[in-house]
Amino acid sequence: MEHELRVAAYDSADAQLLTDEVQLEYVRRYGSEGGDINPIDAAEFVPPVGQFFVVYVDGVPAAMGGWRRHGDDAEIRRMYVRPQFQRRGLAREVLDMIESTAREAGFARLILETGLEQPEAIELYRSAGYTDIPAFGFYAEEELSVHLGKAL
Questions:
Q1: Burial label, 76 (beta-carbon count in 10 A; 0-12, 13-18, 19+)
Q2: Distances (CA, A) of 78 to 1, 3, 52, 90, 95
Q3: Burial class, 4, CB count within 10 angstroms (exposed 0-12 / middle 13-18 / buried 19+)
Q4: Which residues does 98 contact at the CB level (< 8 Å), separation at least 6?
Q5: Which of 23, 66, 120, 123 is deepest in the core (most CB within 10 A)?
Q6: Separation CA 46–CA 8 (nearest Å)
Q7: Strand ranges in the chain using DSSP code E only, listed in sequence order
Q8: Strand 3-7's sheet: what is its strand order?
Q9: Kindly report the CA angle at 20 between 98 and 100, in degrees rounded to 5?
Q10: Phi, psi of 62 (to 5 degrees)
Q11: What does the alpha-carbon distance between residue 21 and residue 80 come to, in Å, rounded to a whole number?
Q12: In angstroms, how far apart are the furthest CA atoms of the chain?
C-alpha cells in the first residue's frame, strides 16, 4: 500500500468527496436527514487559523482530517477514513499530523466533538491521550455527543 499524506484545501474536490461520504455515514449511524449540520467554512482550515489533510492510497483519496481555531484551542474536524482503507493506521497518521501542526501553530490544546455512535473514533482519541472535557460548540447540548481534549 503506497500512501501519501498531503495538505489539502477543505473545499478541494477530494476533500468534498470524502465529506459527502462521511455525511452519509452520519445519517446511517444517527438517523439524521442532514448529517453533520455544524457549519464549516473552507477558510477556517487555512494557516495560521487551521489546516486540512487528505491521505491518498495508490492515488485514491482514502482519509482526511483537519483542525481549526476554536477560541484559544484548536478543534479537530472531519476525521474520516473510507471503509476500504480502515485498520491500516491512516487515522492515527492524520491525527499525529493534526497534533504536530496545531502545536507548531502555537496551540496548547486540541479539542473535539464526536458521538456515541462512533465507538471506533472514541477509542482512537482515548488511546491517543484525549480525555473528557466540558461540552462546547454547536453540539454542546446533544446527549449523544462526546467532547474530548488533549494538552499539546
A1: buried
A2: 23, 19, 9, 14, 11
A3: exposed
A4: 51, 53, 65, 66, 67, 74, 76, 110
A5: 66
A6: 9
A7: 3-7, 50-57, 60-70, 73-81, 109-115, 131-132, 145-151
A8: 3-7, 50-57, 60-70, 73-81, 109-115, 145-151, 131-132
A9: 0
A10: -120, -30
A11: 9
A12: 42
What confidence tens digit (pLDDT) does each residue in 69-124 have?
A: 999 999 999 999 999 999 999 999 999 999 999 999 999 999 999 999 899 999 99
Tell me the whole-structure pTM to 2 decimals: 0.93
The grid coordinates of residue 84 equal 476500504
C-alpha cell read off for 121:
473514533
Residue type, position 32, single letter: S
Q: Which amino acid is at 145?
A: S
**Beta-ladder partners of 13:** none
Residue 6: CB atoms within 10 Å: 12
